[in-house]
Design goal:
Length: about 150
């Protein structure tokens, strides 16, 4: 089963997010690009490369609401959200995948949280490559046009 994600560039600071589910259901939101786009693209890159099915896109693909998939979070979805948030923060500089994983583990230990087994330097390397690819596609998407991604649920 696949989830088709359509991102339409509306204005410099606005885009439309559409999730077209295999069952015919559709989830649509108009979002502020600066706050949401990079976060959603990092989710896509991490979840695709780690083959996660119980995180944001897997939940939306199975009928979850865009606004409600984040609360309350537990298990894989919570772990993924923590990794995505940390990676988003790390993108302000140059990301060394092994240092990122080591630092994530260190912070997780300090707060008494578990580091997901799937979080490896190799995964971060692949996710960053995927992220750069989709960011490049987005930058090449003209206003009024749509970029489509496919997520296997």
């Amino acid at each position: 089963m696949s989830l088709r994600i359509r991102l339409t560039r509306l204005e410099n600071d606005r885009h439309r997010f559409e999730a077209l589910r295999a069952d015919g259901g559709v989830e649509v939101r108009e979002l502020e690009t600066r706050s949401f786009l990079i976060h959603d693209l990092i989710h896509f890159a991490i979840e695709t490369e780690a083959k996660l099915t119980d995180s944001f896109y897997g939940l939306v693909g199975r009928g979850g609401d865009y606004d409600r998939t984040g609360a309350p979070m537990a298990g894989e979805a919570m772990q993924t959200e923590r990794v995505v948030a940390a990676l988003q923060g790390a993108l302000h500089g140059e990301v060394d995948p092994q240092r990122f994983v080591d630092r994530f583990r260190e912070v997780s230990d300090q707060i008494g949280s578990r580091t997901p087994d799937w979080l490896t330097a190799e995964l971060v390397t692949r996710a960053l490559k995927r992220l750069r690819e989709v960011q490049g596609r987005w930058k090449a998407t003209p206003f009024g046009q749509t970029m489509e991604l496919v997520f296997d649920v």
